[in-house]
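INFO  loader      accepted 1 record
INFO  loader      residues=385
INFO  predictor   begin
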Amino acid sequence: MSKYKIEFAPVDFSDAIKYVEEVLKSGWLTSGKFVNLVEERLSDYFKRPFLLTSSCTHSLELAYKFAIEKTEKNLFVVPTWTFAATANAAVNVGGRIAFYDVDDNLSVDFKSLARILQKHGNDVAAVVTVDYSGLPVDYKKVRHYIDMYAPQALFIADCAHSFGSSYLNEPAGFFADIACFSFYANKNLPAGEGGGVLIKSEWERDFRLMRLHGISKDSWARYGSGKWDYSIEIIGKKANMSDLHAAVLMAKLERFDEDQKIRLAYWAKYAEVVEGIEGVRMLPLSIGVRRGNAHLAVLLFEDINRRDSVMQCLVDAGVMLSFHFPPLHIQPAYTSEMFGVEVVESFGSIAEYYSNRVFSLPISAYLEPEDVDYVCENLYRCLHT
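INFO  predictor   done
INFO  writer      dumping tokens
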């Protein structure tokens, strides 16, 4: 049993039982009916092909591998303020890394991005962005910098946080060449495990092949058609989603709009508590045409000691908190020669500054209203102690 009165990101999967039972009774647990149904639905939503994968990490690896093959380059320009997978996936496909910094809203720092691209632009396979906390990056501005300094490079968006967000009234990821999504258990659209990749129509076959060992027809297509022959056309990997997870995803898609209304209302309650208090602010939900999804409720403090004391005060009250993220450019995996990772450039002074001044409050559509009220009451108390 947890020591916490309020969990950080609770989720209830009971609404998926009907679809999961259908999959179990069918005897077909790997990619099948529900994978196809969800892919069709998400492709309609994005107005581009969307393929389900086993994780966002695998989506990133597919995207990075494709970028290396398409550009014949192997340098990936990634933010230092992100989860490990954003950079690890590049290393896992033989890539080199350049880290750029973040701005005061923990999004793209265009000064450091420009410096990297001006110096290394000819070597870049992809510029990678992260919609941290669900706040979309300025996609048009990123594209401008790529076109100016590294026109051969792909624009890959890590949208692990941003399903349901929008930029210029299009879904997050739409304006990138490739966008990778997570459906992990704590996401706005959760399947427990799983991911997806948004691609251009002309690249769909390449990604279908890469997703499943380079095989020309998956099991569902072979058994469904009665034609057993297939060819192995490229060296791919095993990155398909199971029908069990797709069944859960279907159930969550059906209630996604309702869940988002709840999540946004909870985010607004936290913002109301913080508003006007000197030395602390909420990371913005939206900035102009960049409309967020309230994936995280992040507090930023001017004073390190105050951040630490407020965190401890909330934890003592039984409120589970989280921290996103320790900057990658100072992590042992990227600083120690023993791991053989080639980092060609690193910027991260702003990320280092905020790494000791942030934490994330509990947020989920599956928190009860009284849970959020409890967090708000204690947040107010802790901020005024």
